[in-house]
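Tutorial, part two.
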Amino acid sequence: MAKFWNFVLFQAGWFACVLGAANQQVLWPVLGTLAYIAFHAWRSPSPKTELSLLFKALIFGVVTDTLIMRLGYLDFRDGWPSPFLSPIWMWTLWVLVATTINGSLSWLRSRPIVGAVLGAIAGPMSYEAGIRMGAGEWGPGGQIIGFILLGLVWGVAIPLFFYWDRTPIEQGLVKNL
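Running the prediction step on this input gives:
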C-alpha cells in the first residue's frame, strides 16, 4: 500500500508544482511537496540514506536542467531563485522523483536497462506535458534536440539513482577518482 500512496503523492506533487509554475504561483505547491518529501524521508527505514539519495538527485537535477536551459533548449519562464539556474519548483520535482526509487519505482531496482528505457521515454514526456500545461516552453535551440537531451539525462538518471541508493559514496564514484 505504501507504493500506491507514493505513486499518488508523486503525481499530486508533480501536478501541483507544474500547475503552480504555469500560474506563477509556486510557493504553496513547492511547500506542500517539500512537506511530503520530509514526511517520506522521516518514514524511511533509513532516513540518513534516503536523505543522501534525495540530495544527490537534487544536485543532479539542478545541474542537468540548468545546463539544458543555458544551452537554449528549455525555458522555464520562472527565474526564481536565479535567472541563471533552473527554478526551485523543478528542484522540488527532482527530489520528488527520487522518493519513488524506494517506493513506486522500486520494482526497477534490479532492472537497470528497463529503468534507463523508462527514464529516457517518460522523462522527456513529463517535460512536454509540463510545457503543454504552460509551465515552460522549448527554447530557441529547438524541441527535438531538447527532447533528445532530456532523454539522455533521464536515461542515465533512473539507473544512477538506484546505484546511489545502494552504494555509499565512499565505496562508489569517489573511490574510483
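The helical segments are 2-22, 27-43, 47-70, 88-99, 112-132, 143-166. In part three we will examine how such features are distributed along the chain.
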